[in-house]
Amino acid sequence: MSNASSPAVPQRQPAYPIDPDIVHRWSPRSFLEKEVPDNVLMSVLEAARWAPSAFNVQPWRFIVARTREERETFLPFISEFNRIWCEKAPVLILVLSKTVWERGEVASHAFDTGSAWGYLALEATKLGLVTHPMAGFDHAQARETLGVPEEYAIQALVALGYQGPKEALPEQLQAREVPSPRVPVGEIAFRGKFGHSL
């Protein structure tokens, strides 16, 4: 199930042809209090599993909170601003990356785990789900609460579920409940040398 039926937003029109699910993926804050079926959640995590990584180390790890009890364990380390909206999300996922392996440091652990997150987010979009990654949480408290070993870096916290109406959000967040624009390719890709137009 794809979100291709989502209403078009002028600032989200690609300049070149790409898969519509890439454009339709965004980060809403309004979630329905609707459980994500096991098979759907496992497909989202399966997609992350197939991301590329240097030396095939696959440094990504995911701590998944699905039950109310599990999610309530996460809530104390989430910032007050994020708790306002993410308490309704049926799934919370802490994204980790392994920083060492038998050959020493995994220099690309964050880069590779970012790729896995991207795969996860796109598969979620294809299945009719939405995701919202967060940096606003206490990493040290999350590590202690969830027993994360020191050799794992904490990268992000992701809310996952089915999109709810913006009217369900507090008034101050409703105006922000729209897909964000992107800068043109010419501002992010250079030819041969930094700053040289492609």
From TrEMBL:
Keywords: Oxidoreductase. Residues 22-81, 86-162 form the Nitroreductase domain. It comes from the Bacteria. InterPro entries: Nitroreductase, Nitroreductase-like. Pfam families: Nitroreductase. GO terms for molecular function: oxidoreductase activity. Belongs to the nitroreductase family. This is Nitroreductase family protein.
